[in-house]
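User: Predict the complex with zinc ion.
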Amino acid sequence: MFADEMDILSLSRWRCTCRANYQHASSSLQRTFTNRLQAFVPYPHQLIDIVEQHGGIFGGEVALSFLLRHDPYRPSTLEMYTSHYQFDNLRAAILNDPQIRARIDKWALRPKTQLYALSRLVSSSLEIRMTNGRTVYVHQSYNCSPSAPLTRAPCTALSNFVTGYGFGCSHPTLTLARRALLADRTLQFPESARDRRVLDRLLAHGFELAVSPATWPEYRDRRSVDVEMKDADDDTRDVAVAADNAYDAPRNRDDNTVGEDNDMTPHLETTQSPEECLRYTWLQCPSQGRFFGDGGSFVGYFDPLDRGEERCMKANVAPYGSMAVWRVPSTFDCDAGCGDVDEVLETGVTSVPVLFFKDPFGELKGLECDRMIASARRRALSF
Ligand SMILES: [Zn+2]
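Assistant: Here is the predicted structure with zinc ion placed in the model:
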């Protein structure tokens, strides 16, 4: 099936062309997910059902591998995340499942220190060694949001989730171009050797890691253009268009079209420092407040025509329900003040749990931040 060979952005666009392609592409997405899980458990759909029943999500390297699709990246660990109060039930359900239990070599419950829990938002982890040599982790979130630990991932390439309904990628512009911003403040805390191994594997698979987006030349080149765009069209910008621009960036990384001097591109003398902010086009300011569903993220559903989004809303499944708004815990110092001006995150706050839902009576009329979140979610890149 050639759909399996398409990258996730091409596939998502291709399946919009006709009903037949929609079926092929949707099947391909689901096949990719179950194939990834099948390396760990014999009946992936069973595991997906168990995780879904307990409000969990899949993350870590398997979620990244799902997004990269045809890349030969095949992790040896499977990571699931659940809220603080659902952890015990999910842990028992997995350990007691007959199909999984028969393939467990050994398991251990590993409570985390308070320092680790505060820095990574993980209270404890269930570690299961499978008889096939693979390892399965079930992580207990420090709070009510199963996705909270994703906001403290070692780098942006690992802040992704997959559920039985769909998936989310926080930094697709970077991740799909095999780039990642390091959460170096998180890594300053005592971290496990596993974090280092994960980062080493990313490097081995061609990822570039950096603290500042200005490390990559096309983001430096775009600075003056982006500031001009922001001045001309500040409050009326369309986040969906911004997301499209963001997706253009990695595709253009090997040519000179970005920042090129032509009639369509306003020219300004570059006066900004290399740390200049690119938040207006979602080009990855680490200090910018983010959430799954904003204009810079990539959220999709396996079967949107079968009310995929509606099912997530009703069941409080990501990207709805208990989620998080966060900044990358980075030493990057934003000159434009993203660390101080976010609508949700106060200065110095890097992650807060939030409840995302769709107002049944229409657009939210409350706080400005509520309106912005509702608006951004409606326009979020989905298919
Ligand atoms: Zn910024």
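The pocket of zinc ion is lined by residues 277, 279, 285, 287-288, 334, 336, 338 (CB under 6 Å).
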